[in-house]
Amino acid sequence: MEDEDELEALRRKKLEELQLHQQQRMAEEAQTAQLDAQKQSILRQILTPEARERLGRIQLTYPEVAENVSSQLILLAQSGRVQSVIDDNTLRQILRKILPKKREIKIERR
User: Fold this and answer.
1) In CATH, which of 3.10.150.10, 1.10.8.140, 3.30.70.100, 1.20.1250.20 is domain 2-97?
2) What is the pLDDT of residue 100?
3) For the CA atoms of the chain, what is the radius of gyration?
4) Cys-Cys with 76: which of 11, 45, 81, 110 at CB 3.0–4.6 Å?
């Protein structure tokens, strides 16, 4: 009987741990989703639709660059250093300075 009680207590403890872990994970996901929504809201305010579209395409090819640019733009907006809406041309200029240069591959035959 004691073994069964101990086994049941261990099961209950493990179930409680799993439930707590699940709740923590769900809370983290909700917080991440909320932060992402806030970022998107700020970007909607400071970027034209064309610039947002370009940033989305950059996100597909260079996710770390897009995240870096987005974060920098958000910080600038929050500090009040963005005076007007950033259009596509301005964003392209910013990206030109950040994106890695294309390497030219030259094949020589002998």
Assistant:
1) 1.10.8.140
2) 66
3) 24
4) 81
